[in-house]
Design brief:
- There is one protein chain.
- By secondary structure, the chain is of the alpha/beta class.
- A seven-stranded parallel sheet has the order 5-4-3-2-1-6-7, sandwiched between helices.
- The longest helix is centred in the middle third of the chain and has 16 residues.
- It is globular and about 45 Å long.
- The relative contact order is 0.21.
- Keywords: Disulfide bond, Glycoprotein, Glycosyltransferase, Golgi apparatus, Lipid metabolism, Membrane, Signal-anchor, Transferase, Transmembrane, Transmembrane helix.
- GO terms for molecular function: sialyltransferase activity.
- Pathway: Protein modification; protein glycosylation.
- One of its GO terms (biological process) is lipid metabolic process.
Length: about 230
């Protein structure tokens, strides 16, 4: 696995049990909220809704939440005018750290740095961190060597990689890339909507097959059914 930056506030195998929560429709009606909340550390992808409507399925505990710069551009107008709506969204995750790929390409840098300014302006205790660009390159190369051929690997795959470095036990929730669940029932793309991703951008089926391979080897656990605790 590619190594994390030494100056990050986390270190290898720091956490016993981690949950990486994707946004897949496989989470809907899963009743996995309590199990997710029981993890020692919880990663979430790209500002997903965790309101009371979804709590039973996805939980609320959040230690790190990522923000794709495209979300800031499209939903919050690059934070160039009104910043409070974005701040209110981040408050939902309480004291979770905010993680962005600020230096992955030059288009992301300015808008990602504005996130830190917003939190500073509102005197928020939430910390902002940026992926080291070389770390993202190393992660992409690693998974490419395992057959994940995509224009860009998904945020979920990056977080799962980090979790495998930082946690003794890794549980994946909400990771699925198919229109039907393992029981053959049709599911929505996300647990909160059915908006499809841009075609040809990620290689989600390949990512999932790799996760299932790791699951079969006991390296991590992929949750695809209903959780026993509710």
């Amino acid at each position: 696995m590619p190594s994390a930056r030494r100056d990050m506030p986390y270190y290898r195998s720091q956490f016993k049990k981690c949950a990486v929560v994707g946004n897949g429709g496989i989470l809907k009606n899963s009743r996995c909220g309590r199990e997710i909340n029981s993890a020692d550390f919880v990663f979430r992808c790209n500002l997903p809704p965790i309101s009371e409507k979804y709590t039973m399925d996805v939980g609320v505990k959040t230690d790190v939440v990522t923000v794709n710069p495209s979300i800031i551009t499209e939903r919050f107008h690059k934070l160039e005018k009104w910043r409070r709506p974005f701040y209110r969204v981040l408050q939902v995750y309480e004291n979770a750290s905010v993680l962005l790929p600020a230096f992955y390409n030059t288009r992301n840098t300015d808008v990602s740095i504005r996130v830190k300014y917003v939190l500073d302006d509102f005197e928020s205790p939430q910390a902002v961190y940026y992926f080291h660009p070389q770390y993202l390159v190393n992660v992409s190369r690693y998974w490419l060597s395992l057959g994940v051929r995509a224009k860009r690997i998904s945020t979920g795959l990056i977080l799962a990689t980090a979790a495998l470095e930082l946690c003794e036990e890794v549980h994946l929730f909400g990771f699925w890339a198919f229109p039907m669940n393992p029981s053959g029932l049709y599911i929505t793309h996300h647990y909160y909507d059915n908006v499809k991703p841009r075609p040809g951008f990620h290689a989600m089926p390949s990512e999932i097959f790799n996760f299932l391979h790791l699951h079969s080897r006991g390296i991590l656990r992929v949750h695809t059914g209903t959780c026993s605790c509710c």
